[in-house]
Amino acid sequence: xxxxxxxxxxxxxxxxxxxxxxxxxxxxxxxxxxxxxxxxxxxxxxxxxxxxxxxxxxxxxxxxxxxxxxxxxxxxxxxxxxxxxxxxxxxxxxxxxxxxxxxxxxxxxxxxxxxxxxxxxxxxxxxxxxxxxxxxxxxxxxxxxxxxxxxxxxxxxxxxxxxxxxxxxxxxxxxxxxxxxxxxxxxxxxxxxxxxxxxxxxxxxxxxxxxxxxxxxxxxxxxxxxxxxxxxxxxxxxxxxxxxxxxxxxxxxxx
Length: 255
Hints:
Number of helices: 8
Shape: globular
């Protein structure tokens, strides 16, 4: 190789995980808004990935109701190759089972096996809460996962009756639980938070190239976790979730 030859540095991977509640309580306008929001988000994420020379952004989607199903069953998909297919809502809320399945895939033997290393992932939980299975047991398993520990975690509470306590347990703090009450707000919120989170995460310290082999062992931490609090405290996002009470415009119909 000559001195003037260009050396192409491989782009590392940053995965956005979407864990979506498709139980019966999410039916109608709620799941319709989720479908529309994810569909509109993908082009924006593609732009972020194209503009970032360091990271390739991929998407992984897990839906749960009476059981669970990976929409991206073969692993995370690059955003420019990802096509959203609308999902329906029915059944119970097996969030505990979803936590166990997420733990299984947050592994170098599964969805985190990129040889070139990875940036800290970001996990979005979209739900109105109210798990019907062993959520505490499933979450306890997930909380021992090293990738979960370093991941940025955001929960979006959908609807007035959302169980925010459950969502707070998933993310670890009330500051990362965002509440929405209508379809328009949901679409704006998902787009803004996901795009900004991906920008931050794909520029953070990577966790796959530390000079040693990293194994999926809770006693072998990958490094400091990804803090998304600055993003969620952004005035633009606060305005979306807490509109000015003096605003006299007609609000979007609620669910």
